[in-house]
Design goal:
By secondary structure, the protein is mostly helical. Helices cover 72% and strands 0% of the residues. It has a domain of 90 residues.
């Protein structure tokens, strides 16, 4: 939460600024609104360019750590690949620009490479019996 505090603060500041501008009752002609829309689109584009790269970096790190933690806990990391393969082949469509088919393919490739280079004890336990018992609840 501490890492995102500056985002929250900036969102609050922009909200306050918008409220102040709305209360000024400034006549906004069509040209002003057009320029404002263009600037908003430009800001959004720049924001997406910056944030999307960071999100991909976070996803990469999260995938690497997930494989490591799952494997150390005794789970078979290959099941992450199975899950992503099912997600890739599911019939449901996603409108989230951060989870496109290309990004899922990249995650599958990266996790597969990570699993092949990870040095782990060969006695991984899948916990299938425990999972099957939990499904009954």
């Amino acid at each position: 939460m501490e890492e995102r505090k500056h985002h929250i603060n900036s969102d609050d500041a922009f909200g306050e600024m918008e409220e102040e501008m709305d209360s000024m009752d400034i006549d906004q002609d069509e040209e002003f609104l057009s320029v404002e829309a263009e600037m908003e689109e430009l800001c959004f584009s720049i924001y997406e360019t910056i944030v999307n790269g960071r999100l991909q970096s976070y996803e990469k790190e999260a995938d690497e750590l997930a494989v490591l933690y799952a494997s150390r806990a005794g789970y078979n990391g290959m099941h992450m690949l199975n899950l992503l393969q099912r997600l890739k082949h599911s019939s449901s469509k996603t409108y989230n620009e951060h989870y496109t088919q290309e990004q899922i393919d990249e995650r599958i490739r990266r996790i597969s490479n990570n699993l092949s280079s990870l040095q782990l004890n060969g006695e991984l336990f899948d916990h299938k019996d425990r999972w099957n018992r939990r499904k009954g609840f």
